[in-house]
Design goal:
Radius of gyration: 24 Å
Distance between the termini: 27 Å
Strand order of the largest sheet: 3-2-1-4-5-6-7-8
Helix content: 40-55%
CATH topology of the largest domain: Rossmann fold
Number of strands: 8
Strand content: 5-15%
Mean pLDDT: 94
Number of helices: 12
Length: 309
């Protein structure tokens, strides 16, 4: 692989792709860009980017090629032409589109079969955060390729994290983190309904959630540690039975206030299954055993151990 420290091409100039290209330009990197509609490249060209007329030209222009489009299917459609794949040979391709771990593995296999170095990344930030200390990007794949491209990638995110040789790891962590985030947002929506039913200001509720964020993230950390170690019955901080009781109250309140009850009803159903399986006196984290489809484990510690991603 050629030295990748000097310049880069960015394929895809949506809000995120444009932010990536701009972060490089602001740090004085020579940047070639391509987008299906050239209008989106106009501002970047004024800022110093070179506009390629084809994907193949963009790939040929730089030793490292970053692609950030809607999904892996779109990315593959752009890169799999004979001209583009030939131009990518010997280059480093960094995939920053959104996709699943399996799609990352398939993309790596496709790239390697054509003599292309490959890294897979997941952006945990909005476009406005790109280039800032709080932006996070997970990157997985070849460690030598990552170390070579690290100076470029650091322009995108202050919290750049290499998560291992297994190329699906970045996408897996992206999905895992978003599961936690969306789960919280679903809870926030139900909380907003509760506030509305009692005449409370939803905006003030949101501010309260922001202040409580460290506490909630601490709970999530404790839950994941319990799952990792399999310690569900030793000194539980909040038992499955206790949590089931709380969700019964949520459902009751929804009925009394005549608001939607789908969120608490769903949670209560899972918790009741855990109690029925014999996990009532164990940590809330024991609910993972129901989600895994495991049987009753009244003896306490489970022998199953999860693996680091």
């Amino acid at each position: 692989m050629k030295n990748v420290k000097g310049e880069a091409s960015v394929i895809g100039l949506g809000a995120m792709g444009s932010a990536l290209a701009r972060a490089l330009l602001q740090n004085n990197y020579p940047v070639t860009v391509w987008n299906r509609t050239t209008a989106k490249a106009e501002l970047l060209v004024k800022e110093g980017a070179v506009l390629a007329t084809t994907v193949a030209d963009a790939a040929a222009a730089s030793p490292v090629v970053v692609i950030c489009v809607a999904d892996y299917k779109t990315a593959h459609g752009l890169l799999s032409t004979q001209e583009a794949s030939a131009a990518l040979r010997g280059k480093l391709l960094i995939q920053l589109s959104t996709g699943s771990p399996q799609e990352a593995r398939d993309s790596e296999a496709w790239a390697r079969g054509r003599g292309i170095e490959y890294l897979d990344g997941a952006i945990m930030a909005i476009p406005l955060q790109i280039g800032t200390p709080e932006a996070t990007i997970f990157v997985s794949g070849s460690e030598p390729a990552f170390r070579e491209s690290e100076p470029i990638l650091k322009n995108f995110a202050g919290n750049l994290r290499y998560v291992g040789e297994s190329v699906g790891s970045a996408a897996a962590l992206d999905f895992a983190a978003l599961s936690y985030g969306f789960g919280g947002l679903f809870g926030a929506l139900h909380g907003a309904l509760i506030c509305e039913s009692e005449g409370l200001q939803v905006g003030e509720f949101g501010a309260m959630l922001a202040n409580l964020a460290p506490s909630f993230s601490g709970m999530a950390k404790h839950t994941c540690e319990s799952i990792q170690t399999g310690t569900f019955a030793e000194n539980p901080q909040s038992t499955v039975t206790t949590c089931a009781g709380a969700f019964e109250l949520f459902v009751r309140q929804a009925g009394e206030a005549r608001i939607n009850s789908e969120f608490p009803t769903f949670g209560l159903g899972l918790l009741k299954r855990a109690v029925a399986a014999g996990y009532g006196d164990e940590e809330f984290a024991a609910l993972i055993k129901v989600l895994r489809g495991e049987g009753s484990n009244k003896g306490g510690l489970t022998a199953r151990r999860t693996q680091n991603v």
